[in-house]
Amino acid sequence: MKAIIAVASLLALSGCAAGESFTSSLNNTVFEPFDDGRFVFYTHNKAPYPMDAAGEAYRIEWLEEALTLNKLCLKGYVIDERKQVKRWDVVYDVWYYGHCKGTAET
């Protein structure tokens, strides 16, 4: 019985590390679009999504999913500013400020 529980636990954890979509990571993200084509996207790194290129790829994927779900930036987007703020030890808040291509900013 203990072996079955251990295997089930490992499978559950491996599913977490395989990658989340934006919609499954909503409790860790905030997306706020503005009428003028600008947007703010916030998330923080967690163990499966560290502050490296692979973790950044997931965060950008989540941003792009948020834009798609809201039917925004159909011509693409530009990240104007990216900030990371250390929360504790190795956990950072990550903020993306951007705008849609084809708006007044571009």
Summarize the structure.
This protein is α+β, with helices and mostly antiparallel strands and 106 residues long. It has two helices and four strands.
What does it look like?
This protein is of the alpha+beta class. It has one domain. The longest helix is centred in the middle third of the chain and has 17 residues. It is elongated, with a radius of gyration of 17 Å.
Write the layout of secondary structure elements.
Blueprint (H helix, E strand, L loop, with lengths): L1 H16 L11 E5 L4 E7 L8 H17 L7 E12 L2 E10 L6
What key attributes describe this structure?
4 strands, 106 residues, 4-stranded antiparallel β-sheet, 32% strand, 31% helix, elongated, 2 helices, disordered N terminus, alpha+beta
Helix content, binned percent? 25-40%
Major sheet attributes: 4 strands, antiparallel
**β-strand amount:** 25-35%
Report how far apart the termini are: 61 Å
Element order, helices and strands? HEEHEE
Taking pLDDT < 50 over at least 5 consecutive residues as the criterion, the unreliable ranges are 1-18
Record field, number of beta strands = 4
Please indicate the count of domains: 1
Spatial strand order of the main sheet:
1-2-4-3
Shape: elongated
